[in-house]
Amino acid sequence: MNKEDRRYAAYVQILREELVPAMGCTEPIAIAYAGAKAREVLGNLPDRVDIGVSDNIVKNVKSVVVPNTNGMKGIEASVVSGIVAGRAEKILEVISEVSEKQKEDMKKFKKDVPVNVSVLDNEIVFDIIVILYYRDESVKVRISDYHTNIVYVEKNGEVLVDLENADQETVKDECLEENGLMDKRLLNVKDIIDFADSCEIDDVRKVLDMQIYYNTQISEEGILGDYGANIGSTYFRYYGNDVRNRAIAKAAAGSDARMSGCELPVIINSGSGNQGITVSIPVIEYAKELSVSKETLYRALVISNLIAVHLKTGIGRLSAYCGAVSAGCAAGCGIAYLQGGGYDEIAHTLVNSLAIVSGIICDGAKPSCAGKIASSVEAGIVGYHMYKNGQEFKSGDGIVTKGVEATIKNVGRLGREGMRQTDKEIVKMMLEGKAECL
């Protein structure tokens, strides 16, 4: 791909937008970010807090430990952490620097200050509204569409930021270009491979070096520590230490740690740390095994990251479709590239793996995400090995249809439209008798 091609600049920008650091599960951190921003505008610790969130935010916040809070969970804990200790300028690392005193202050604030949580009844999948009160003053901050997208800020009735009405269709339909971000509809598998083959490494080196370093750290921590259900270390104990198992186990281990409050940052993909870990660690492990050059690893990570983003574009940031599936299948594509694969190998790997694991549900962020990651990475590897063995799932086999892009479109339709009611039922199940999770 020629550097003057508009797609070249777009693909570089997509990587820079999507591969950013975050500490902790990104939905609780988005709440913390909203809380920190609101407190910054208010200028004081509030004496009352109201927070409204969409169903999918509830689903992805209730069961994960918020880092740097001494083990607190839930929506209330997330917003309190941002209000008391957050630094809004650090965005998704908003609570990465918290003192022991601030942790105690969080506990006291949570006990002494009323925090009223409600579920927003609208059609926006990703929506957070935080309102802080101090005496006769108030501040309202709203984040919609994606984790850092502040669309509205109001103080004492004066509107400071208003992007809510700028493009309502963007907010309600994430298949369209997201407000303020590069249009991901420019992505397709053929062009992604062309870009990976031809891009100047210096244009992608910085974000990929951070991904390699951060995500390897949390993966190793997940193996060494005692986190969640210890899916990663279970794989090592029972299934051996070959490269295939290392790729699966280490990706799962990163999620083990992250879902259970590990205070190490990750480089995310498509708004998710789990997806960022899943799309990178298996490729890194195979690169070590194959002794490929650092440049080849970079190019394989470009493949896996951009294919994961491409898959998620039609599904949306949050849905009932597990994002680990997209990331694990994309990792299989990166692994195929490391072994000399071109368009045919990568396209067949992707279709084969999607046929195996599409439909795994997302029932929120929690320890079992690591198990879903393990299954998805395994499917990505099997999808590649099927192709090498002369096997494939063919058009008409379920949702598989002719051509990789058409199959990707079907997967997007499944995740976004077909599983919409599933999403609602999942949230209902999670909330029945579980009001304390808020």
Radius of gyration: 21 Å
Shape: globular
| Domains, number | 2
Q: Number of DSSP strands?
A: 8
Output the helix-strand order: HEHEHHHEEEEEHHHHHEHHHHHHH
Q: What is the average per-residue confidence, as pLDDT, rounded to a whole number?
A: 93
CATH structural architecture of the largest domain = Orthogonal Bundle
Structural class call reads: alpha+beta
The separation of the N and C termini measures 48 Å
The proportion of strand residues reads 5-15%
How are the strands ordered across the major sheet?
A: 3-2-4-5-6-7
In the CATH hierarchy, the third-tier topology of the largest domain is known as 2-methylcitrate dehydratase PrpD
Helix share of residues?
55-70%
GO molecular function: L-cysteine desulfhydrase activity
InterPro entries: Ser_deHydtase-like_asu (IPR005130), UPF0597 (IPR021144)
Family: Belongs to the UPF0597 family.
Pfam families: SDH_alpha
Write up what this structure looks like.
It is a single chain. The chain is α+β, with helices and mostly antiparallel strands and 438 residues long. It folds into two domains: 26-176, 60s Ribosomal Protein L30, Chain: A (2-Layer Sandwich); 187-431, 2-methylcitrate dehydratase PrpD (Orthogonal Bundle). The protein has 17 helices and eight strands. It has helices at 6-18, 26-42, 55-61, 74-85, 100-112, 168-172, 189-198, 205-224, 231-239, 243-259, 273-290, 294-315, 323-338, 343-357, 369-388, 404-418, 420-431; strands spanning 21-23, 48-53, 115-119, 127-134, 137-144, 150-155, 158-162, 265-267. The strands form two sheets. It has a six-stranded mixed sheet with strand order 3-2-4-5-6-7. Strands 1-8 form a two-stranded antiparallel ribbon. Strand 6 and strand 7 (158-162) form a beta hairpin. The longest helix has 22 residues, at 294-315. It starts with 5 loop residues before the first helix and ends in a 7-residue tail after the last helix. The model is unreliable at 167-176 (pLDDT under 50).
